[in-house]
Amino acid sequence: MLKVPEHQVAGRQAIDGKLGPLIDNSGHFYKPLQDDDERGTRELTFYHSFSSNTRIPHHIRRFFPVFHGTQLLKASDRSGLRPHLVLQDITSDHLNPSILDIKIGSRTWYLEASNDYIQNCFHRDKTTTTVSLGFRICGLQIYNESGFWKPGRKLVRNFTADDVRSVLRKFVSSNVGPEPDCCFAGSVYGGCDGILERLLELKTWFEDQTMYHFRSCSVLLLFDKESFLRGKTPFAEVKLIDFAHVVDGNGVIDHNFLGGLCSFIKFVSQVLADSKGSTMEDKI
Amino acid sequence: MLKVPEHQVAGRQAIDGKLGPLIDNSGHFYKPLQDDDERGTRELTFYHSFSSNTRIPHHIRRFFPVFHGTQLLKASDRSGLRPHLVLQDITSDHLNPSILDIKIGSRTWYLEASNDYIQNCFHRDKTTTTVSLGFRICGLQIYNESGFWKPGRKLVRNFTADDVRSVLRKFVSSNVGPEPDCCFAGSVYGGCDGILERLLELKTWFEDQTMYHFRSCSVLLLFDKESFLRGKTPFAEVKLIDFAHVVDGNGVIDHNFLGGLCSFIKFVSQVLADSKGSTMEDKI
C-alpha cells in the first residue's frame, strides 16, 4: 500500500491531488519522473551512472540513497501510470526523526540551464542565504515532546544567518525555544560517528572527485531524538538527495558544492564548539 | 625616480597617460586610490584593518604585500597630486619573473555592490572560466629564451579549461610551445617550499577565517626560471593582491574564495601528478 511520506520537509509533495513521491512499508521511496522537463531524465541518468560507477568509494556510497531501478506506478495526481524512481526511504528506520534539508552551494543554476531557469535561481539565490552563506535551509522538522516544530516554507525561505545558527542549535536541543540547550550537540554533531565527522569525509571526497557537479542538491541531516532519550545508541545520518540537476564534472572539482559544504561545516563546528564552551562554564 | 612597473600582467596600467600604479627602485609599489568610486577607500580600509589585525597568523601575513601607508604623489595620468597606497613591490626581487595572475572565486560580485556592477560581473563570470572552474586567469607572462610570452587580454579572457591546463604546464616548462616539458613542475609546484604546499596553507586558513570575504581578489604566482637555470635555489612565491572589493566576513567563511582555491589547487595537483607520470615513463 503506497502512501504520502510523513517526514518530507521540502520539495514537491503528493498532497491535494498533486504529483509527488510515495512510500511503502518496506522502506522504498517512489519518486515520480517529471515529464515536462529534463529533470526526471537527468536524475535517472545520474542514478544509473552512479550505481554502476566503480570509482565511487564504498564509504561515499553510504551517503546516497540506494537505487532500485524504476517502476511504473499510479501517480499521486491520479494522472495514471507514470515511471517512478525506486529509492531507499531514508526515514523508514527512524522514529520521529528530526530532519534538516540543506541545499548546498552558493549558486543553484548552471551554465547548461535555460535563461529563465538561470534568472529564477539567480534571484532566489540572492534573496535567500544561498549567496551569503553558500547554502540554504530548504525545510526542517525538529521533534520535541509536544510534536514536531516544522516552520512553513515562507518562514524558512526568509531565514537569515542568525536564524540558521539558531536552527542548528535547536536541532540538537531538548527544547526549541529561544534558548536551546544544545544538550545533544556532542553526541549528534561531535564524536567519531557524528555528523561533523561524516561531513568532513564528504568534504575530502569533494576535494578530489571531478566526475559530477551537484547543482541544487541537498544534504539531509537526520537524527532520532527519542532513541537518545530512551538511552539507545546515537543514530545520526547524513544523506545527499535530489539529483535532478547533476551535470558532468568534466574533470573539474565541484567547487560550488565544496565551498558551500565547507561553510556549512564551519556553522556546525561553531555550534559544537559553543556547546562545549557552555558545558565547561556550567562545570566551573 | 618613479616608473611604470615592467612586470604588471593585469589591471589598470599607467601607460598612454592613464592612471595606474608606479614603482621605485627601493622595492615599493605605489597604487593610486581611485576617487570615482569606493574601491580605493575599501582597499585602504582593508590594508589598515589587516595590518593591525592581531588574529592574522604570521605564516599567513607572508601571503600579502607589506603595507607602508599612503603617500601623496603625482599621478601617472598627470592629473596632479593623488594619494597612493605604498605597498611592497613583489616583483622587485625577481629577475625576469614568470607570473600568473588568477582571480579566485566562482563569483566576482557581492551583495553590497550596485546592480550595474553585479550585472557586469555576472555576464563576465559566465563568459569566462570563473563560473565553470571557480577561477579565471587574468594575465600572465612566461619567460623563455626569446623573451616573455605575454598573450593579450582578449586572448586570456577567452581561455577555456584546456587553455588553463596548458598555461599551468607552460608556466613550469622550459618551452612554451604546444608540448610543454613541465621540467620545473617538481621544484616549482611540488616540494615542501613549492607553490602547492603554499596554496594548501592558504586553504587551511580559509577553512577557518571568517573576518574577510575576498571578492575579485587575485592569487599571484611568481617564479624565476633564470635562477633555476643558473642552479640557484628555487624561489617561487604565492601572493594575494587586489583588495578593492574585500568585504566583512560577518562570521561566515569565504566559501566563494575557498571553493575556487580548491579548484585551482586541483588543477595544479594534476599538472604535478602528470609531470611525475611522464618522468616515470621517460625512465622506463
TrEMBL record, chains A, B:
A Pfam family reported for this protein in Swiss-Prot or TrEMBL: IPK
Entry keyword Transferase: yes
Recorded catalytic activity of this chain's protein: 1D-myo-inositol 1,3,4,6-tetrakisphosphate + ATP = 1D-myo-inositol 1,3,4,5,6-pentakisphosphate + ADP + H(+); 1D-myo-inositol 1,4,5-trisphosphate + 2 ATP = 1D-myo-inositol 1,3,4,5,6-pentakisphosphate + 2 ADP + 2 H(+)
Job description of the protein: Inositol phosphate kinase with a broad substrate specificity.
Gene3D superfamilies reported in the protein's UniProt record: Inositol polyphosphate kinase (3.30.470.160)
Gene Ontology terms describing biological process: inositol phosphate biosynthetic process
Keyword Metal-binding in annotation: no
Keywords associated with the record: ATP-binding, Kinase, Nucleotide-binding, Transferase
E.C. number(s) listed in UniProt: 2.7.1.140, 2.7.1.151
Protein name according to UniProt: Inositol polyphosphate multikinase
Molecular function as annotated in GO: ATP binding; inositol tetrakisphosphate kinase activity; inositol-1,3,4,6-tetrakisphosphate 5-kinase activity; inositol-1,4,5-trisphosphate 3-kinase activity
Coiled coil: none
Gene: LOC107903073
Species of origin: Gossypium hirsutum
Family listed: Belongs to the inositol phosphokinase (IPK) family.
GO cellular component, one term: nucleus
InterPro entries attached to this UniProt entry: IPK, IPK_sf
